[in-house]
Amino acid sequence: MSRILNIGIATLDIINHLDHYPAEDEELRALVQERRCGGNAANSACVLSQFGHQVSLLCTLADDAAGAQIRRDLQAHGVQTDQIVTLDPAHTPTSCITLNRANGSRTIVHYRDLPELQAGDFPYPQIEQYDWFHFEGRNIEASEPMLRRLSEQRVDQPISIEIEKLRPGIERLYGYADILLFSRAFALQQGYTCANDLFDALRQQGIAAILVCSWAEQGAWACDRHGDRYHQPAFVPEQIVDTLGAGDTFNAGLIHALLEGRSIAPALATACELAGRKVGQTGFAHLN
Ligand code: ADP
Ligand code: FRU
Protein backbone atom coordinates (compact mmCIF):
# COMPACT_ATOMS: atom_id res chain seq x y z
CA MET A 1 0.00 0.00 0.00
CA SER A 2 1.40 3.40 -0.96
CA ARG A 3 0.28 6.92 -0.13
CA ILE A 4 -0.43 8.96 -3.23
CA LEU A 5 -1.36 12.62 -3.66
CA ASN A 6 -3.26 13.41 -6.88
CA ILE A 7 -3.35 17.08 -7.81
CA GLY A 8 -5.86 18.25 -10.41
CA ILE A 9 -9.60 18.64 -10.80
CA ALA A 10 -12.87 17.01 -9.86
CA THR A 11 -16.08 17.68 -11.72
CA LEU A 12 -19.67 16.47 -11.67
CA ASP A 13 -20.07 14.23 -14.72
CA ILE A 14 -23.63 14.12 -16.05
CA ILE A 15 -23.51 11.13 -18.38
CA ASN A 16 -26.31 10.42 -20.83
CA HIS A 17 -26.10 6.90 -22.26
CA LEU A 18 -27.44 6.87 -25.84
CA ASP A 19 -27.82 4.07 -28.36
CA HIS A 20 -26.39 6.24 -31.14
CA TYR A 21 -24.64 9.57 -31.45
CA PRO A 22 -27.24 12.29 -32.06
CA ALA A 23 -27.42 14.46 -35.14
CA GLU A 24 -27.41 18.21 -34.62
CA ASP A 25 -30.84 19.47 -33.53
CA GLU A 26 -32.11 15.91 -32.99
CA GLU A 27 -34.29 15.24 -29.97
CA LEU A 28 -33.80 11.87 -28.35
CA ARG A 29 -34.19 10.12 -25.03
CA ALA A 30 -31.25 8.83 -23.01
CA LEU A 31 -31.28 5.16 -22.02
CA VAL A 32 -29.77 5.99 -18.63
CA GLN A 33 -28.42 9.08 -16.91
CA GLU A 34 -25.61 8.91 -14.36
CA ARG A 35 -24.42 11.80 -12.22
CA ARG A 36 -21.10 11.10 -10.58
CA CYS A 37 -17.68 12.41 -9.76
CA GLY A 38 -15.33 12.84 -12.72
CA GLY A 39 -12.17 14.73 -13.61
CA ASN A 40 -8.83 13.20 -14.53
CA ALA A 41 -7.15 13.40 -11.12
CA ALA A 42 -10.35 12.25 -9.39
CA ASN A 43 -10.89 9.31 -11.76
CA SER A 44 -7.28 8.16 -11.43
CA ALA A 45 -7.59 8.47 -7.65
CA CYS A 46 -10.70 6.26 -7.60
CA VAL A 47 -8.92 3.56 -9.63
CA LEU A 48 -5.69 3.72 -7.61
CA SER A 49 -7.69 3.39 -4.43
CA GLN A 50 -9.10 0.06 -5.65
CA PHE A 51 -5.57 -1.35 -5.53
CA GLY A 52 -5.40 -0.64 -1.80
CA HIS A 53 -3.42 2.59 -2.04
CA GLN A 54 -4.21 5.45 0.29
CA VAL A 55 -5.02 8.19 -2.19
CA SER A 56 -5.69 11.82 -1.38
CA LEU A 57 -7.11 14.31 -3.89
CA LEU A 58 -6.01 17.94 -3.96
CA CYS A 59 -8.45 20.02 -6.01
CA THR A 60 -10.90 22.88 -5.60
CA LEU A 61 -14.64 22.39 -5.17
CA ALA A 62 -17.50 24.75 -4.46
CA ASP A 63 -19.64 24.57 -1.34
CA ASP A 64 -22.68 23.43 -3.34
CA ALA A 65 -24.74 20.29 -3.94
CA ALA A 66 -22.47 19.06 -6.75
CA GLY A 67 -19.41 19.58 -4.56
CA ALA A 68 -21.06 17.60 -1.76
CA GLN A 69 -21.90 14.74 -4.12
CA ILE A 70 -18.33 14.63 -5.43
CA ARG A 71 -17.00 14.39 -1.87
CA ARG A 72 -19.42 11.55 -1.10
CA ASP A 73 -18.48 9.68 -4.29
CA LEU A 74 -14.76 10.06 -3.58
CA GLN A 75 -15.21 8.86 -0.02
CA ALA A 76 -17.26 5.90 -1.22
CA HIS A 77 -14.24 4.98 -3.39
CA GLY A 78 -11.97 5.29 -0.36
CA VAL A 79 -10.31 8.49 -1.63
CA GLN A 80 -9.33 10.96 1.07
CA THR A 81 -10.96 14.38 0.70
CA ASP A 82 -9.36 16.32 3.54
CA GLN A 83 -6.94 18.19 1.22
CA ILE A 84 -9.77 19.52 -0.97
CA VAL A 85 -10.01 23.32 -1.01
CA THR A 86 -13.63 24.48 -0.71
CA LEU A 87 -14.47 27.84 -2.28
CA ASP A 88 -17.59 29.83 -1.46
CA PRO A 89 -19.36 31.46 -3.21
CA ALA A 90 -18.55 29.37 -6.29
CA HIS A 91 -19.94 26.70 -8.62
CA THR A 92 -18.57 23.20 -8.96
CA PRO A 93 -17.65 22.43 -12.60
CA THR A 94 -19.81 20.07 -14.64
CA SER A 95 -19.26 17.92 -17.70
CA CYS A 96 -22.23 16.98 -19.84
CA ILE A 97 -21.19 13.74 -21.50
CA THR A 98 -22.78 11.90 -24.39
CA LEU A 99 -21.82 8.26 -24.10
CA ASN A 100 -22.56 6.34 -27.28
CA ARG A 101 -23.20 2.75 -26.23
CA ALA A 102 -22.85 1.57 -29.83
CA ASN A 103 -19.10 2.23 -29.88
CA GLY A 104 -18.20 3.52 -26.41
CA SER A 105 -17.31 7.03 -27.61
CA ARG A 106 -17.64 9.81 -25.07
CA THR A 107 -18.25 13.39 -26.11
CA ILE A 108 -17.53 15.80 -23.29
CA VAL A 109 -18.78 19.36 -22.87
CA HIS A 110 -17.02 20.74 -19.80
CA TYR A 111 -18.09 23.96 -18.11
CA ARG A 112 -16.11 25.59 -15.34
CA ASP A 113 -15.95 28.97 -13.70
CA LEU A 114 -14.40 27.66 -10.50
CA PRO A 115 -10.99 29.09 -9.57
CA GLU A 116 -8.16 26.56 -9.77
CA LEU A 117 -5.73 25.64 -7.00
CA GLN A 118 -3.21 28.22 -5.87
CA ALA A 119 0.43 27.40 -5.18
CA GLY A 120 -0.14 27.94 -1.45
CA ASP A 121 -2.82 25.20 -1.36
CA PHE A 122 -0.22 22.44 -1.63
CA PRO A 123 0.41 20.61 1.68
CA TYR A 124 4.17 21.32 1.79
CA PRO A 125 4.60 20.38 5.48
CA GLN A 126 3.17 16.92 4.71
CA ILE A 127 5.39 16.07 1.73
CA GLU A 128 7.16 13.28 3.60
CA GLN A 129 3.84 11.52 4.19
CA TYR A 130 3.42 10.66 0.51
CA ASP A 131 5.13 8.05 -1.69
CA TRP A 132 4.04 9.44 -5.07
CA PHE A 133 2.77 12.76 -6.46
CA HIS A 134 0.62 12.74 -9.59
CA PHE A 135 -0.25 16.05 -11.27
CA GLU A 136 -2.71 16.87 -14.02
CA GLY A 137 -0.76 19.17 -16.32
CA ARG A 138 -2.95 22.29 -16.11
CA ASN A 139 -3.06 25.55 -14.20
CA ILE A 140 0.58 26.23 -15.10
CA GLU A 141 0.98 29.47 -13.11
CA ALA A 142 0.21 27.64 -9.85
CA SER A 143 1.53 24.18 -10.74
CA GLU A 144 5.02 25.40 -11.58
CA PRO A 145 5.75 26.94 -8.16
CA MET A 146 4.16 23.90 -6.48
CA LEU A 147 6.40 21.57 -8.47
CA ARG A 148 9.47 23.70 -7.85
CA ARG A 149 8.99 23.67 -4.08
CA LEU A 150 8.00 20.00 -4.07
CA SER A 151 11.17 19.12 -6.02
CA GLU A 152 13.28 20.97 -3.47
CA GLN A 153 11.57 19.48 -0.42
CA ARG A 154 10.79 15.90 -1.40
CA VAL A 155 12.97 13.05 -0.29
CA ASP A 156 12.98 10.84 -3.39
CA GLN A 157 9.29 10.33 -4.15
CA PRO A 158 8.45 10.17 -7.87
CA ILE A 159 6.48 12.94 -9.56
CA SER A 160 4.31 12.06 -12.56
CA ILE A 161 2.62 14.69 -14.70
CA GLU A 162 -0.20 14.01 -17.15
CA ILE A 163 0.09 16.12 -20.30
CA GLU A 164 -3.30 15.69 -21.91
CA LYS A 165 -4.01 19.01 -23.58
CA LEU A 166 -1.93 21.69 -25.24
CA ARG A 167 -2.00 24.60 -22.78
CA PRO A 168 0.15 27.74 -22.99
CA GLY A 169 3.41 27.19 -21.09
CA ILE A 170 2.76 23.52 -20.30
CA GLU A 171 6.30 22.62 -21.37
CA ARG A 172 7.54 24.55 -18.31
CA LEU A 173 6.34 21.63 -16.19
CA TYR A 174 8.27 18.91 -18.03
CA GLY A 175 11.55 19.39 -16.19
CA TYR A 176 9.97 18.63 -12.80
CA ALA A 177 8.62 15.21 -13.75
CA ASP A 178 10.14 11.78 -13.33
CA ILE A 179 7.42 10.45 -15.62
CA LEU A 180 5.48 12.37 -18.26
CA LEU A 181 2.20 10.79 -19.34
CA PHE A 182 1.13 12.16 -22.74
CA SER A 183 -2.13 11.62 -24.59
CA ARG A 184 -2.56 10.88 -28.26
CA ALA A 185 -4.63 14.06 -28.54
CA PHE A 186 -1.68 16.10 -27.26
CA ALA A 187 0.79 14.44 -29.64
CA LEU A 188 -1.53 15.06 -32.60
CA GLN A 189 -2.15 18.69 -31.55
CA GLN A 190 1.63 19.16 -31.57
CA GLY A 191 1.80 17.78 -35.10
CA TYR A 192 3.25 14.33 -34.30
CA THR A 193 1.58 11.38 -35.96
CA CYS A 194 3.14 8.80 -33.66
CA ALA A 195 4.41 8.64 -30.08
CA ASN A 196 8.02 8.00 -31.09
CA ASP A 197 8.19 11.30 -33.01
CA LEU A 198 6.98 13.09 -29.87
CA PHE A 199 9.62 11.26 -27.82
CA ASP A 200 12.38 12.19 -30.31
CA ALA A 201 11.41 15.86 -30.07
CA LEU A 202 11.35 15.80 -26.25
CA ARG A 203 14.75 14.11 -26.02
CA GLN A 204 16.16 16.72 -28.42
CA GLN A 205 14.84 19.38 -26.04
CA GLY A 206 16.82 17.71 -23.24
CA ILE A 207 13.81 16.27 -21.37
CA ALA A 208 15.17 13.38 -19.30
CA ALA A 209 11.97 11.98 -17.76
CA ILE A 210 10.48 8.59 -18.58
CA LEU A 211 8.05 9.29 -21.42
CA VAL A 212 4.76 7.48 -21.92
CA CYS A 213 2.06 8.10 -24.52
CA SER A 214 -1.25 6.24 -24.70
CA TRP A 215 -2.78 5.82 -28.13
CA ALA A 216 -6.34 4.44 -27.69
CA GLU A 217 -6.89 1.21 -29.66
CA GLN A 218 -3.20 1.08 -30.59
CA GLY A 219 -2.18 0.71 -26.94
CA ALA A 220 0.73 2.75 -25.59
CA TRP A 221 4.38 3.61 -26.12
CA ALA A 222 7.16 4.48 -23.67
CA CYS A 223 10.74 5.67 -23.70
CA ASP A 224 12.90 4.96 -20.66
CA ARG A 225 15.75 7.10 -19.31
CA HIS A 226 18.29 5.22 -21.47
CA GLY A 227 16.28 6.00 -24.61
CA ASP A 228 14.99 2.42 -25.00
CA ARG A 229 11.54 2.35 -26.59
CA TYR A 230 8.61 0.07 -25.78
CA HIS A 231 5.22 -0.57 -27.36
CA GLN A 232 2.34 -2.40 -25.75
CA PRO A 233 -0.64 -3.25 -27.99
CA ALA A 234 -4.09 -2.54 -26.54
CA PHE A 235 -6.06 -5.26 -24.80
CA VAL A 236 -9.25 -5.15 -26.81
CA PRO A 237 -12.39 -6.30 -24.97
CA GLU A 238 -15.21 -8.17 -26.70
CA GLN A 239 -17.21 -4.97 -26.95
CA ILE A 240 -16.16 -1.37 -26.33
CA VAL A 241 -18.93 0.22 -24.30
CA ASP A 242 -17.46 3.15 -22.36
CA THR A 243 -14.19 4.95 -23.11
CA LEU A 244 -14.85 7.72 -20.55
CA GLY A 245 -11.74 7.94 -18.37
CA ALA A 246 -9.75 5.31 -20.32
CA GLY A 247 -6.66 7.52 -20.10
CA ASP A 248 -7.21 8.21 -16.40
CA THR A 249 -7.46 4.44 -15.80
CA PHE A 250 -4.34 3.83 -17.89
CA ASN A 251 -2.42 6.40 -15.81
CA ALA A 252 -3.60 4.81 -12.56
CA GLY A 253 -2.56 1.36 -13.81
CA LEU A 254 0.87 2.63 -14.77
CA ILE A 255 1.47 4.37 -11.43
CA HIS A 256 0.28 1.29 -9.53
CA ALA A 257 2.55 -1.02 -11.51
CA LEU A 258 5.59 1.24 -11.03
CA LEU A 259 4.85 1.54 -7.31
CA GLU A 260 4.83 -2.27 -7.20
CA GLY A 261 8.37 -2.18 -8.58
CA ARG A 262 7.59 -3.33 -12.12
CA SER A 263 9.80 -2.06 -14.94
CA ILE A 264 8.48 -0.07 -17.90
CA ALA A 265 7.46 -2.91 -20.23
CA PRO A 266 5.35 -4.86 -17.70
CA ALA A 267 4.00 -1.59 -16.28
CA LEU A 268 2.78 -0.60 -19.77
CA ALA A 269 1.17 -4.03 -20.08
CA THR A 270 -0.59 -3.63 -16.72
CA ALA A 271 -1.85 -0.17 -17.69
CA CYS A 272 -3.16 -1.31 -21.09
CA GLU A 273 -4.77 -4.42 -19.60
CA LEU A 274 -6.55 -2.31 -16.98
CA ALA A 275 -7.64 0.35 -19.49
CA GLY A 276 -8.77 -2.39 -21.90
CA ARG A 277 -11.00 -3.89 -19.20
CA LYS A 278 -12.30 -0.40 -18.38
CA VAL A 279 -13.43 0.34 -21.94
CA GLY A 280 -15.22 -3.03 -21.97
CA GLN A 281 -17.39 -2.07 -18.98
CA THR A 282 -19.42 0.90 -17.81
CA GLY A 283 -17.75 3.06 -15.17
CA PHE A 284 -14.76 2.28 -12.95
CA ALA A 285 -16.09 -0.38 -10.56
CA HIS A 286 -14.22 -3.62 -9.81
CA LEU A 287 -11.12 -2.96 -11.92
CA ASN A 288 -8.67 -4.43 -9.39
P1 ADP B 1 -7.93 9.13 -23.29
O1 ADP B 1 -9.04 8.58 -22.45
O2 ADP B 1 -7.07 10.12 -22.54
O3 ADP B 1 -8.38 9.63 -24.63
P2 ADP B 1 -6.72 6.87 -24.74
O4 ADP B 1 -7.86 6.93 -25.70
O5 ADP B 1 -5.34 7.01 -25.29
O6 ADP B 1 -6.91 7.92 -23.54
O7 ADP B 1 -6.81 5.49 -23.98
C1 ADP B 1 -5.96 5.14 -22.92
C2 ADP B 1 -5.73 3.66 -22.95
O8 ADP B 1 -7.01 2.99 -22.88
C3 ADP B 1 -5.06 3.13 -24.20
O9 ADP B 1 -3.64 3.13 -24.08
C4 ADP B 1 -5.61 1.72 -24.30
O10 ADP B 1 -4.83 0.86 -23.47
C5 ADP B 1 -7.01 1.84 -23.69
N1 ADP B 1 -8.00 2.02 -24.75
C6 ADP B 1 -8.59 3.17 -25.15
N2 ADP B 1 -9.43 2.96 -26.17
C7 ADP B 1 -9.38 1.63 -26.42
C8 ADP B 1 -10.02 0.76 -27.36
N3 ADP B 1 -10.87 1.22 -28.27
N4 ADP B 1 -9.69 -0.56 -27.32
C9 ADP B 1 -8.83 -1.05 -26.40
N5 ADP B 1 -8.19 -0.28 -25.50
C10 ADP B 1 -8.46 1.03 -25.52
C1 FRU C 1 -12.43 11.98 -18.38
C2 FRU C 1 -12.72 13.26 -17.62
C3 FRU C 1 -14.17 13.36 -17.19
C4 FRU C 1 -14.32 14.84 -17.01
C5 FRU C 1 -13.43 15.42 -18.10
C6 FRU C 1 -12.72 16.66 -17.65
O1 FRU C 1 -11.06 11.86 -18.66
O2 FRU C 1 -11.88 13.39 -16.50
O3 FRU C 1 -14.48 12.59 -16.05
O4 FRU C 1 -15.62 15.27 -17.15
O5 FRU C 1 -12.51 14.40 -18.46
O6 FRU C 1 -11.92 17.18 -18.68
Output the keywords:
single chain; 288 residues; alpha/beta; four-stranded mixed beta sheet; 14 strands; globular; binds adenosine-5'-diphosphate; binds beta-D-fructofuranose
Provide a brief overview of the structure.
By secondary structure, the protein is an alpha/beta fold. The chain has helices spanning 40-50, 65-76, 140-153, 184-189, 195-204, 246-259, 264-279; strands at residues 3-7, 11-18, 32-38, 54-58, 60-62, 85-87, 94-100, 105-111, 132-136, 159-163, 179-182, 210-214, 220-223, 229-232. Helix 6 runs antiparallel to helix 7 (264-279).
List the helices and strands and how they pair.
Layout: E1 3-7, E2 11-18, E3 32-38, H1 40-50, E4 54-58, E5 60-62, H2 65-76, E6 85-87, E7 94-100, E8 105-111, E9 132-136, H3 140-153, E10 159-163, E11 179-182, H4 184-189, H5 195-204, E12 210-214, E13 220-223, E14 229-232, H6 246-259, H7 264-279
Parallel strand pairs: 1-4, 1-9, 2-7, 5-6, 9-10, 10-11, 11-12
Antiparallel strand pairs: 2-3, 7-8, 12-13, 13-14
Helix pairs in contact: 1-6, 6-7
Residues 11, 13, 38-40, 43, 95, 108, 110, 244-245, 247-248 line the site of beta-D-fructofuranose.
